[in-house]
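Regression report. Comparing outputs from two consecutive submissions.

Submission 1:
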Amino acid sequence: MSLKDMIAGKHEYSKADVKHIVRQLLRALDTVHESGLIHRDVKPGNVVVDLDTFDSRLIDFGLAEFYFPNKAYNIRIATKPFKPPEILINHPKYFQSFDMWGLGNILGCLVSPESVLNQRCSGRRT
């Protein structure tokens, strides 16, 4: 199941499950970044979760790009609710923290099920 569907209420989860999911995503991003890449589209729809173990996997590397210091990157990327501030102000020289912003938003979605951000995570509209 996608994390987006899980957040939308299609499956219950505990705080321990949230810790497990986020820890695995941190490890995944560490591997991605150590490989020299920026994923650039970290969002609930790009995370799949095994509902028995809550093991999670980061998927869809279609927007990924190798990171080079001081390179100007395309700013017309990522999914709107998960875009980091540097993209919103049209700053093209971003780096791997781009992905951490998306992960932080995912964490917010998981721990605050009634927030406006959560509604964006699950695709629901207010």
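Submission 2:
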Amino acid sequence: MVPEGWSERPLSDLADYINGRAFKPTDWSKDGLPIVRIAQITNPSAIPNRYSGSDINDRAPTRTVSVTKRRAPRNNAVLALLILFSRTALAHAQTDPPAALSFTNATVESGFTSLLDLGGHGIQVADIDGDGLLDVYVTHIFDPKQDRPDLLFRNLGGSPQRFEEIGVVAGVSDDGFYALELEDGTVEELSEESHAAVFADFDNDGDLDLFNGHTWSGHHRLYRNEGDARFVDISDSAGIDVRDLGPRGVGAADLDGDGLLDIVVTAWQDFIPNVYMNRGGMRFKRSRLKGDADPSFANQGLALVDISGDGKPDIALSAFEHVPGVGVGAIAILTNESPRFVENTAFTGLEYAQTTSDFRGTNGYSFQDIDNDGDLDVVITGFHGSKLYRNNGEGRFNLVRLFEGVHYTAAFGDVDNDGDLDLYLAGDGGIYLNDGSGAFRIVGEIGLEGIGTDARSAVFADMDNNGSLDLLIASKQGPNTFFRNNLDSAASGNWLGVSLTGPSGELGAIGATVSLFESGELVGYRVVQSTTGYCSQDPARQHFGVDAAGTYDLLVRFQNRSEVTRAGLSPGQVVTIGGTSDTETTPQ
């Protein structure tokens, strides 16, 4: 029986969520027939705002839900839903997951250990030893007077899959303190802790080197990969300076199109980001980023990706604080007009408004194609919600959704291998599944339990080479975690991997685009990037969920516009494409 004052609507009306109308099905009478109830709330100030915004349906809990009715003068009436929830309610409204989608917390079993004093920030995933298994580097930072090493986990494979921590042996633990001479002539010892690092083939020799940005000391390190998971510090001979204080994000991209990867190091407030231009032979020339970078930005994560569509990587900067009159909110899009980078934020339509009195701004960008239309959409994470923008195909973006809450990283990956990219916001207990059109619904109770407090980075990667994407998370105030995807893709074969080497011999081919076709129709589009979110790096090997019975064609376009095609590909394999050994078309 419906109490007096309530209205009853059929379950089919769930779609009628517009202009504040929200329907939540509940079996009030315990007769197995869920109905929905709408309350006429006449005092808007009495409604808790924890579930305000465009994703109220996703944030409403699913347990112990009730609604109530309040009275006030009629001229203030608005239609709304007041949601009261128990302590056991989920943080998001979560639909039932697909039967096959679940994860197992394999952190302890796999040997993915954390430091006792925590501090996890960045996760970089790459095959450092060329054995076909993805390895993991985790950066740590907490305090300039404390000492936290970075951890390198070598993937040993096996069933169950195992890691071995080899940071010290490999020479990249970056442990200890550095004596830095300050401007007043005094010397201070600051820890070598770091927010972010990046793996990239800086010398085009077919293996991945490592650049690590040290936040407190500015004593950044460049390590050349010597093979067999061993690195040697060549920072001094390479021209890496000790003046870049406070960086959070770092990344690699070929900024000037010469076939060599350059390095971008962000800066904290009152400084301009630095660029290390690759001159070949593992030698770099350092300079301030030329153009419109604003020194008032306290930079967080960055993205290096072609936003304008001219084939050159642009730079997207995020800012810890909202600076009045600067940029569009706490973001800046700098278009590559080599050698200068020109501020072009307003043209793109991207913005990040300050919605509360909180002075904090944004944390990072995650660019991926959510609707398989051949261009990059983006999620901007920050302290005023995470914003999903859709690309209209001309380098302009339209806001399509706001995800409430504070997040540092948005990770994309096809976790259910249904052909579209799903979304995970670092720290959440559920995953947003893509319906194929770029619309997302969150599913929970899939085994993402035990995530550390204050999650900073997240990466989807196939760590056991079974064709399904696992999940790694770094947390500042809790343990780092590794979740194994229980999807049996090895048996079903509903996946396809693509591993690239660029025309100049660069392993990974950062900046390349990969288009997947079935019967002439585009069914997947990826861009190889060196950095995403706050301090994360996705693996260069690209993953596509596909129909196991299908046949597929690939088109790879490298940054120099040369192309490689492969036709008639069967699923269930990693396709290796070398830019120098494959037949290429003439650069466009």
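Expected: both submissions complete independently.
Actual: both completed, but the second showed a warning that disappeared on reload.
Relevant detail on submission 2: The longest helix spans residues 56-59.
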